[in-house]
């Protein structure tokens, strides 16, 4: 494999992180600055979701390999945390440039492993890149506080300091953005990092690791292991790991939150969602319907912030046929094909699950206004495709409403008033994101104040905050106290040391022991 030796604006080879020693390339581990072949006997296949061809294999790292990775993080911590903050900043300044110059290569890899369209994959990289760019403000973000003269000759000040070894566990749906929410923020603060990418899409993380190394990150500051449950348990249990960031399903996230917390670690856990778009009859119809369709079916609905549920209020219920027409016009195709709007789902199991949730809606009395289950994609007959699907007359008791579908399925409910819509949203356990579509400021204000959801869009369908803010999903969509990226991300990966110091002039020296509390 060609290495990037200079920090110049070089293109990174597309297949980096894999070594081909049989007909199927294998994903390496990244331990102590080296991309190494695992000695494991357990491997998982990686598939192209558009064809279901096996395009690679990923190891389940052995216990020895995982220990070597965490030991490497521990050894590197001392010198890395002691490296000047300006030197760390420089590495991330170079890193953002390398990512920017290799967006296309990263995106191709994402499309190949994850299935999303190339344009959407570039967006995946871009949103992660923005987090890396924000880490370059570390010199402001790491500032402590001072208060001089808290009493005579005495000052108090705080340092914001790294924790030690931190770890991240990531999902399949954003192979670039979500790892980039984690290790750059942790590392620029002076932590070292152990990453376990999704075993279904590991290639992008490997390429990102290579670019970080080429930006000057010392050996051991980032280590990558692969695997499933054993790797996750290892991270939850290893005493050297001080904090865990998790993004993925509720099943895994709640488990990791509990197991990590019991072991005394900080855990932040971003999980599943059921995001509602509330459409008021005064909304700009054309704009709203296009936004709704884009946010429901983009990335085949495999976004935690997908608007998977619409609530049409009053007269807006008559817009349903137009909504269906727009969804019908989307082109389902392999992500690397020109003009593709909706790519495949990640796996045949995901496809079966989504199709059975559609059927459950039909069985429970919803109206199937658009059925994507029989979609045929020429040349990609073996892919995991489901076309845009719309279920109308959905009620809150139906399984298609209570479960996160994570596919290109929009469920549509009706409400007579804004209050009724707010009540519906607030009764749903998830609190990741929501949007209201209206031209009335008072309606928008009432909604944003009364809705109990962590991220609200007003005429913005997917209100994912930029990295100067934080990703603030709430209720069942999040466990932890401190959110990802932005100020909160920097808080998560740092601890505060508070120093109180007294420098007395000689003539003020104590004449006897001070045995009472100072007042
Ligand atoms: P997932 O939970 O299956 O996998 C995420 C990670 O957890 C992977 O690295 C996987 O190896 C590990 N894992 C899986 N099952 C596990 C288990 N039982 N015990 C321990 N570890 C386990 O999630 P996914 O299918 O890759 O991603 C889709 C989910 O992620 C959706 O629910 C989506 O809403 C959610 N998500 C949330 C956000 C957010 O910010 N809230 C962002 C993206 C995705």
In words, what does this structure look like?
The protein has 519 residues and is an alpha/beta fold. The chain has helices spanning 63-82, 85-101, 103-114, 118-135, 138-141, 177-188, 203-214, 229-237, 250-262, 285-297, 320-328, 348-363, 399-402, 418-427, 441-450, 486-492, and strands at 18-20, 25-27, 29-31, 34-36, 43-47, 54-59, 146-151, 154-162, 165-169, 192-196, 222-224, 241-247, 266-270, 276-279, 309-313, 367-370, 389-392, 409-415, 430-431, 434-437, 456-458, 474-475, 478-479, 494-502. The strands form 7 sheets. A 7-stranded mixed sheet has the order 16-17-18-15-14-20-21, sandwiched between helices. Residues 169-174, 196, 198-199, 228-229, 232, 247-249, 251-252, 255, 270-273, 304, 404, 406, 432, 471, 473, 477 line the site of nicotinamide-adenine-dinucleotide (NAD). Nicotinamide-adenine-dinucleotide binds at residues 169-174, 196, 198-199, 228-229, 232, 247-249, 251-252, 255, 270-273, 304, 404, 406, 432, 471, 473, 477.
